UniProtKB/TrEMBL annotation, chains A, B, C:
It is found in: Cell membrane; Endomembrane system. Keywords: Cell membrane, Ion transport, Membrane, Transmembrane, Transmembrane helix, Transport. GO terms for biological process: intracellular monoatomic ion homeostasis. It is a multi-pass membrane protein. Its main location: membrane. CDD domains: TDT_SLAC1_like. GO terms for cellular component: endomembrane system; plasma membrane. This is S-type anion channel SLAH2-like. Pfam families: SLAC1. Belongs to the SLAC1 S-type anion channel family.
Length: 568, 568, 568
């Protein structure tokens, strides 16, 4: 009954909207947001991308019968949604003194670019040069600076409006709670927006590169640097002498990995500087947060892979420097698991948590390689305790673990990472590949086989940058197998070593080709990073409807998603 | 309100049905299903049990005013349930061209034999010689062959009907989802049908022996072969020399166990050949599937128990042969735990999962006994990892573990199995009953004591063949205690060895007596194996009602079960 | 709608009650309960505290217009709640033959003392000398004796009434189910009554000291005796020689701890003798039950801390004596975890469960110190198995663990206890602080740090006697660090030892000061122990309302608590 009413009433509004003003709807709106005539010309935009849209606005105002949707000035009206927006013909209520209403009310706006999609022949009318303020809330300084400028220019005419803007802005800056990530996103990496959700940032447009550059990119560094270790091990292991591997691959891979790490770190540093809000949202993302361990693990890998021609013995202080951020992150992350709240383990457990465990074992291995004694055991112990907890939790697949993918997914290869590194670390600590070291090694081997026989499950999954992070466990298992071959040298172990090394190198090469294709040919390696653009609160029904109406005409999906929502 | 209406309305239909035609209801129905006049005579049944029922049908048609329930021909009408079946007097719509409508629609039919129970003086009218096609869907070849015959004879007149039959048949052949097992069955071994459920196979009749022969029967082999190991250990352990045990018990038990294994394997092989559907359903049963490890574990036990007079050193290739199926099953089962879906661990965890773990340790023990090195550690490692997961999961008793019995149950003795075998395996791998071996041994001992002090909980539980599987952990603990006594020989450990061995032998003897009583005196050792006869889909309410009405007149049970169902 | 009606109707009754008779309400009621005129004088009370209240009753009856609430005599009417109590002026229905109606119906009564709180100028009219029978159900002999006396005097005139009384009495004596504790109490130690609950014992009055003396008090013994071990270790460890600690602190602390243990044990023994019901309720409390391990652990600590001047080597039989009750309790508690029912681990898991684990490791340490071999490994193994289960369960923070505090709480320091004692135990068993011993030590250290960096969370939490139990893990970590320093002696480990010892001593001193302040200045060290006074069944809505109305006038709380309740 209720549902029928909704479907009767709201569409009438939508119809009215769409038949009358779809073409102008979007642009004038942005014009409004971008301080239209005659104020626009007066603003000197600091970032220097913004140009006046007044001209184009005027043009269109003359060309056609445009309807401007003037958003209500009071903050209480900010969340009323689509059904209550007033349709005014040739409105002249421009709120000229408010320099960033668009910024403040940005959440309302994104429903509109979507709406207009209905109209097939829509053109992005405003020129490329127009500074798109929709990204401002994610920028580090934008708001503050603009506000200072605006205040200097003495234009806070509508005080209430500005206050509302500020509070709204603060609301946007506060990252969404972890529940929102689970509610708004889906997929094993929580990177797809659910049908009922709307994005804070425009979905129809390519975002600035930095906003699209995810922390997952450090996964590439993990993949390449672990390959460098593999080839170093193949080169230096007496048991693999029969392969006559030259030291060159290690050297090349190491330099390549170094370049990659420097590049990715530099770009991500820029993101931290210019879009701190986006970084914060990645840090609060229950899957992404684990990737913050990746840069440090990659550095540890680099230290392990350092070619003998560059350095034979590394100084222990490097170990202390690299382990400090890992230790800090662990105090934070493991503490969140235990101390409850939204980020407790039974809620956030997912295979990418292995990234936050594996650092301990890699650190223990490097430390033991350097001849340290207590430090490696410390990290080994911490890793072991938390690995047992995580292993049991993930194996149990508690119904509360919302992120655990229903089907197998490459992320499951992270299961192999911790035990394969742990066995090497223990072998190095103990000075012998003893029974205690073989136990994690064989666990890794079994998990590897268990996943390998299910490999056809992986077909048909969309390529993603995160896959790189799922290659290093395979490489780790290969290296562990070589170490094991050094302890038990026979034809079977040697064949296994060659096999696993080949698979790992083949996988990395394939991924490299895919990555190059996506980066340079398809040019979609960095799609809009929708995971960081979720709204802080559940969108209103009217928005969901609008979003839905615009994106598809299949009413069954909506019904199912609504009823699914109401189940919770 | 609604409930009252249901109790007013539906019974009226039932009353009509029952007062008019109860006697003929069943038989004519089967007559219908069994391709009645004049087609029946033409069919040459391959299994050669089937004889024409036409004669008896005719007789009865003359004798009384029979109502034939003609099932609707369209597939959409197949699930309409009892309330909508049409009551036609002297119907002549026999669908003569459909050779196996009964087979196809068998699910509808089982409600009827139950219904007729209401009528006290019902006789099974169709002669014993009549081939009961109700078991056909579980037979391996029946359907296909019959269909081929039917096709050869060119009688698929009602195409639609046949299509419906085929799709329905496929539906039956597809085993029920794991959720259905949890929904339809109850008890710690999931072997009792819930009040609201109906069985696919006739509940009022003894099924063919093979259908009643469960995979649990391999538990007997486990019990007897582990006793053979116990008596071998008592005979050969220097620490137990003071008992002066002769090698005879070991020899006798070993041959008995061998005979048992051969017999049980042969019978089960017959079941695989003739009732593959039933085997498939056992394999999909969340408790039963673990018993598929039992034959291989029993073989490992046989290899461990081999009397010194027969062989002193077994050849390692036996180990590889025996471990292969265990390894394959593990890849499958553990993969299901981890990879989610319906069979994830948090859903299916129950003590019988220990059977799927203990094979690793038994294998490791046998391998280490044979002098192998890496293989045993591999299985020990795999067993350890999964044992920790299972132990924690079972100890936690998550609310999602539907199968975990509320009360203690003999199945809990399986808790003792893994650690007691693990300690022996580790002691053999390490070559010494060291501290690491004592830890699992003492865990087993504590669990044993913990269960022993609760032994009175076990009283009053119905005897079941599965109990045999719960004796081998006691035997395992006895053997481990003897091994421990060899490491720590004093009066306490010797007494403990004697005590535990006595308890284990006493338990096995008692079970043997019980089994013989049930097998030869009560003749109910193999009751109808209702666990494999659940319907693929939840039965309709009308069927539940019919089932209920026929089986008891206590309306409170129904109400409670209905309301309980609606809670979920 | 419904809620509005409730708020309209019931208050009218309340208003009537409160405006007419608040002053006399309470006293006459108790007069009634205490067998009023003319029976009262005839009763000779065995405990000799009770004096006739008839005089005071008579006085008040003359003084003012008293309304006596006569409770219905039939048992069916016992639970009707407040709204149905009849208001009779100058009632003369005294049920003179019922010797303990108050005892039987005591559950009804507690709502009344609360009700009268509304009236600000209420005075406790009945003299201190009046024996308050409200505590009788918790007394060990009171009821039985009184009943015997009453029966001897031949006064069971109203048979039915007595029967009701007896059954009601049994109901009270039967401890509440574990679910009731979770439903009725809140807070990390489950020691605060929820807003919707009522207490069995009067909340407005100080209870007898024994009733207020909780088993938590043994926590003080744990804190002081562990300090004695610390100072013994500081004195005797060669690695800490540079501190020149005298043996005096150990000696003083040991004697102090001995005195404390004797005192606390004596008082608690009195409680067992005189208020067995209260002890039983503590034993059934899901958090408190773990404190029943505390006395035995404290004794183990005493044996470990014994000053060298008193004894150098303790006799092993002490170990066997002390471990027996721990072993028995473990069989009981761990069995409950595993065997399901209301006390399964996934339900009752909370950090105080560590108390039930740590005894194993302390026992293993003491046994190994005494030179025993197998016993310590046994307890180490049992402890390890259950520690892994508990550690994983607590770390996961399953949504079913109702008691786990949302925020961090001192109870979390118990996490540190088990691994820090375990490392010492293993080091002693193994005879060397080896890698296997370092793993638990480093886990303890990491957990310590993880909690220490969150220490500001602990501010603002109300002091409680239970905190003492949370100091011994810190002390344990200090001792473990000293042992570790003996294995790895350098400036860092020495500083860490000094640091942790200082923190632990400082914490204990601070707690001592707090305890003295609360005991002798604020005189609230032992507040009414509301955890043991919960009703066996959920209170009726009318009682909740009454309770609520009397304790606060904020109707939002009630609404929220009601709606929260209805959610379940």
């Amino acid at each position: 009954m209720e549902k029928t009413e909704l479907q009767v009433e709201i569409p009438s509004v939508l119809k009215q909207t769409s038949c009358q003003n779809i073409n102008g709807f979007d642009c004038v709106d942005y014009g409004n947001g971008n301080n239209p005539i005659p104020l626009e010309n007066a603003i000197s935009d600091k970032e220097s991308h913004g140009e006046s849209t007044a001209g184009s606005n005027m043009t269109r105002l003359e060309q056609q019968d445009v309807i401007i949707i003037s958003l209500p000035a009071s903050p209480s009206g900010l969340h009323i949604g689509l059904g209550q927006t007033k349709l005014v013909q040739h409105s002249d209520r421009y709120n000229p003194g408010n320099p960033y209403p668009q910024l403040a009310k940005q959440k309302q706006f994104h429903s509109q670019p979507i709406l207009v999609r209905e109209n097939g022949d829509r053109k992005v009318v405003h020129s490329e040069a127009v500074r798109d303020r929709r990204f401002d809330p994610f920028k580090t300084w934008s708001g503050k600076l603009e506000r200072q400028i605006s205040n200097l220019r003495g234009k806070p005419t509508h005080e209430a409006d500005i206050e509302a803007g500020v509070s709204e802005r603060e609301e946007i800056e506060e990252a969404p709670g972890v529940d929102r990530y689970f509610d708004a996103l889906e997929g094993p990496e929580l990177d797809t927006l659910r049908a009922t959700e709307v994005s804070v940032l425009p979905e129809d447009k390519k975002w600035p590169f930095l906003l699209r550059f995810p922390v997952n990119a450090f996964g590439i560094c993990l993949g390449v640097s672990s390959q460098a270790i593999l080839w170093k091990t193949l080169n230096t292991s007496p048991a693999m002498n029969f392969l006559h591997i030259s030291p060159m691959p290690n050297l090349i891979l190491w330099w390549a990995a170094l370049a990659l790490i420097l590049f990715v770190s530099f770009v991500y540093l820029l993101k931290i500087v210019f879009y701190f809000e986006a970084v914060k949202r990645e840090y609060h993302h229950p899957v992404r947060v684990n990737f913050f361990f990746a840069p440090w693990i990659a550095c540890l890998f680099m230290a392990l892979a350092v070619p003998p021609s560059i350095a034979v013995n590394l100084r222990p202080f490097i170990w202390y420097i690299l382990m400090t951020p890992i230790f800090m992150l662990e105090l934070k992350i493991y503490g969140q698991w235990m101390s409850g709240g939204q980020r407790r383990l039974s809620k956030v457990a997912n295979p990418s948590n292995h990234l936050s465990i594996v650092g301990n074992f890699v650190g223990a291995l490097l430390g033991a390689n350097m001849g340290l004694k207590e430090g490696p055991i410390f990290f080994f112990a911490v890793g072991l305790a938390h690995y047992i907890v995580l292993f049991v939790t993930l194996y149990q697949r508690l119904p509360t673990n919302a992120t655990l993918p229903k089907e197998l997914h490459p992320v499951f290869f992270l299961f192999v990472a911790a035990p394969s590194v742990a066995c090497m670390a223990w072998a190095k600590i103990q000075g012998d590949f003893d029974h205690a070291a073989r136990i994690p090694y064989f666990i890794a081997l079994f998990l590897y086989m268990s996943l390998a026989v299910r490999v056809n499950f992986f077909r048909g999954i969309r390529f993603s940058l995160a896959w790189w992070a799922y290659t290093f466990p395979m490489t780790g298992a290969s290296i562990a197998t070589i170490k094991y071959t050094m302890a038990v040298t026979n034809i079977v172990t040697r064949s296994l070593s060659v096999c696993l090394s080949a698979i790992s190198t083949f996988t990395v090469s394939t991924l490299l080709v895919y990555t190059i294709i996506h980066a340079f040919i398809l040019r979609d390696l960095f799609p809009n990073d929708i995971s960081i653009a979720i709204t802080r609160k559940k969108p209103k029904f009217s928005k969901m409807l609008a979003h839905f109406r615009s994106s598809s005409s299949d009413s069954k999906d909506l019904d199912s998603s609504i009823s699914k929502n109401s189940e919770f």
